[in-house]
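Tip: read the tokens left to right.
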């Protein structure tokens, strides 16, 4: 059980560390990491705390910003999506959850930019302009979520199959 937990925690922090490497804008691991944590940690508190802590550590290096409450809240919602994925971890369901996480992130964080940053007029037109301006970033968010979800979910499933100490039977 400790080995399995250690692998999960290691994967969380390694994926968060990927944020420190050069990458296209919004092509990040955090959305997939939040889904993965929700789907794999038996203790839901760890499912929420670990990815957000890993993100906080990487933000300490990258830099803090005014949208952090909105972004962190959105990733907490993505962990919740992962919790509901727990018993249905098929490739199709993981891809669907990655798409849902990307849409959720796009809708909520860009609403936050419109509502709190003062970059756009607080009118319906300003909101529409904000969403339109963010469209180029959505593709990167989706690609990052799908790529890292495949890496995390697939890598862990492979470890569960090939290394007995990581298998679900080792949890009991």
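Filled-in amino acids:
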């Amino acid at each position: 059980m400790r080995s399995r937990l250690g692998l999960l925690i290691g994967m969380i922090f390694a994926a968060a560390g990927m944020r420190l490497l050069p990458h296209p804008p919004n092509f990040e691991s955090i959305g997939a990491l939040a889904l993965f944590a929700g789907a794999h940690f038996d203790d839901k508190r760890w499912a929420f705390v670990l990815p957000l802590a890993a993100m906080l550590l990487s933000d300490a290096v990258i830099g803090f910003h005014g949208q952090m409450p909105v972004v962190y809240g959105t990733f907490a919602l993505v962990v919740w999506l992962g919790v509901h994925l727990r018993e249905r971890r098929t490739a199709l369901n993981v891809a669907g959850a990655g798409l849902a996480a990307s849409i959720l992130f796009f809708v909520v964080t860009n609403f936050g930019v419109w509502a709190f940053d003062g970059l756009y007029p607080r009118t319906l037109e300003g909101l529409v302009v904000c969403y339109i301006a963010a469209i180029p970033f959505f593709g990167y968010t989706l690609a990052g979520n799908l790529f890292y979800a495949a890496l995390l979910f697939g890598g862990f499933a492979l470890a569960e199959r090939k290394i007995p100490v990581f298998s679900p039977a080792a949890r009991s």
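Helices lie at 2-17, 30-40, 44-62, 68-85, 91-116, 124-162. Residues 124-162 form the longest helix (39 residues).
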